[in-house]
Amino acid sequence: MNRYILGIDLGGTNTIAGIVNNNGEIMAEFSFKTSDYNSPSLLMEAIYCSYLQFSEKKGVNVSGVGIGAPNGNFYRGTIEFAPNLNWGNYIPIATITEAFFKVPVKVINDANAAAIGEKHFGCARDMTNFVVLTLGTGLGSGIYVNNQILTGKNGFAGEFGHTKCLEINRKCTCGLESCLETVVSARGIKQTYEELYLKHYQRMPENTSVIQIHELAKQGDKLALETYTYTANVLAHGIANLVMLFDLEAVVLFGGIAHAHPIIIPVIKEELNKLVLPVFRNKVSILPSSLLDKNAAVLGSAALFF
Ligand SMILES: [Zn+2]
User: Fold this and answer.
1) pLDDT digits (tens, 9 = 90+) for 139-182
2) What distance in angstroms lies between residue 171's CA and the mean position of ligand 1's atoms?
3) What is the pLDDT of residues 67-112, one digit of tens each?
4) Same domain as 34, residue 63
5) Residues whose CB is under 5 A from ligand 1 (ion)?
6) What is the Å distance from ligand 1's center to 82 Cα?
7) Which domain holds residue 262?
8) Does residue 62 fall inside a structural domain?
9) Under a CB-based contact definition with an 8 Å cutoff, are residues 82 and 26 in contact?
């Protein structure tokens, strides 16, 4: 018998809610612009209304709501100190959601949700030790060790984007310096390209977005390719640390920047073999997510109940 769960990917820019069945099929999807809502209750009310319309029309009822959110706390059902949400430092999102849906609610951080999605419905189905990296506005990670998602003492394990690389001289949006995501993120790629462009042409490029830089790289543009090579090199150093800490079988790349995988994966693979101990060489797969065009965070949030 089919069971339905509402999976919510709550992001700083967009929020997507999907009704997911136990086969990982998204039956319906609703999108919201997060900043249009002045409080989490207003957003949840809008999600509930969309769900209710669908539910009444199709006779589908969800038995749980899973939420993946930046700094989502699995233990407390809260969102804490999320840099891109302007609803206060502690958002009791599970309590707010339960008041509307009257079903159990589970909360997890967005990168962990992506990893759970990959484990249940994606390319990591048969894996027990792997990391999903979410390459987007920032850099997150969901870590599976010995077939269990790593949550840590407070539920915040996996802040890979804020691990340090001393060679990086950039200030991070978190307020600290030398964080990996100052290079390996949309913002980082843009900055690297601008720096290379300035050095080469003695002027700044005009309004270049990461999508444009990716297009340029695909066309063989030298500076765009150099940007991705540098990004992939820095990322390989971070991945080498993960491999040696957790003895991984795979690293799965997810998020907008992962669409550049034909350019970055060969560089990461080559670099990684130079950086890890002989026992780890040629043993780690670097893969694009098999859910790249689906919403892994929606699937993963729902999978909290499967
Ligand atoms: Zn940081």
Assistant:
1) 999 999 999 999 999 888 999 999 999 899 999 988 999 999 99
2) 8
3) 999 899 999 999 998 877 889 999 999 999 999 999 999 999 999 9
4) yes
5) 162, 172, 174, 176, 179
6) 13
7) 127-288
8) yes
9) no
Total structural domains within the chain: 2
Q: How far is CA 221 from CA 6, 121, 214, 218, 270, in A?
A: 43, 36, 10, 7, 21
Q: Are residue 170 and residue 85 in the same domain, yes or no?
A: no
The answer on 23 and 172 residing in a single domain is: no
Residues 28 and 106 in one domain: yes
CA torsion angle 205 206 212 213 (round to 10): 10
Please tell me whether residues 203 and 219 are part of one structural domain: yes
Ligand 1 geometric centre to CA of 176 (Å)? 5
Q: Tell me the pairing of strands 139-145 and 130-135.
A: antiparallel
Å from CA of 275 to ligand 1 middle? 23
CA-angle at 216, arms to 210 and 217, nearest 5°: 90
Token pair of 135, please? Answer: 């390459």
pLDDT of residue 29: 95
Same domain, 138 and 263: yes
> What CATH number does residue 173 fall under?
3.30.420.40
CA of 178 to the centre of ligand 1 (A): 7
- Whole-structure pTM value: 0.91
Could you tell me if 154 and 87 lie in one domain? no
**Residue 121 maps to a domain:** no
Biggest CA pair distance of the chain? 64
CA of 105 to the centre of ligand 1 (A): 29
Quote the ligand 1 centre to 174 CA distance (angstroms).
4
User: What's the pLDDT at 89?
Assistant: 93
Residues in the chain with pLDDT values less than 50 = none
179 shares its domain with 104: no
